[in-house]
Amino acid sequence: MQAPTGSGKTLADLLPLAHALEAADELGGDDEARFRGAGFPSAIVFLPTRELAAQVFEHAEKHVARGGFPCVLCCGGADEKPQMLGIRNGARVVIGTPGRIKAFVDRGALKTDGVVFQVLDECDRLLDGGFERDVEEVCRPPGGKTRTACFSATMPPVLVRFLNRRLPPDRAAVTLRNAAGGNVGGGVEHLVLVTHAEHKHGAIVDAVDAYADGADADELQSRVTGQTIVFVETKVHAERLAGTLAVEYEVRVRCPLFDGFFFSFFFGTGAANAVAVDDDLSSS
Questions:
Q1: pLDDT of residue 284 exceeding 80
Q2: How many angstroms separate the CA atoms of 206 and 246, rounded?
Q3: Which CATH architecture has domain 9-166?
Q4: For residues 273 and 130, what is the distance between their CA atoms, to the nearest angstrom?
């Protein structure tokens, strides 16, 4: 499925996943029973980052685990012990990043023989992050009892070639677009501001003042009253922008949240706040 960001792809993969597990349990015989229990998940959901995996896991706890299918979150950069405990306790659904999932498969902690549903969420970013080999080595081959669902906001040629290898020829393809024919959520508006490099930080401040929700550029005492997220390429750039906005909005709070992530929060007058975020999200 190709659909805009924010269009509900998470539930679009979790609800069919839960239905597939329920159907498999109803139809399963002695052969299927061999692939139940510790280390034999019935479904695997691949995501490109820890943050996305954690978000999907949170939804899975509400919509899948409560239906009797316990889930476990398996991500690199986090303590393995609770992840292994979830696997040993018989998690039916594994959600995580390809590197950590493959590591568990290579060590024999996870076995894919009983997988009846596998999901590749944010497929384009999985390939951009260099996870293609890990995904291919863990995924069940096309055909057979295993159903594969792939979700992506974009469909670049490299992804098309990957899907042609991984999915059967009679697969169903669904493309959702907004009313304007674009592939981003209908509430998202794109604006391009062209400026010289030395004026970039000032342009960001001007954009925040002009476009933040509820902002009134004529009221300098309440310049920013909405919320803004600024994505930058490196931590150094985030620091520099942090300094610019700190001077502009007077109060600065820094908080390193995870390794590989850096968040700088700026608070202006009233409820104003903007966030500068390091865009290095490639950890597995």
A1: no
A2: 14
A3: 3-Layer(aba) Sandwich (3.40)
A4: 34
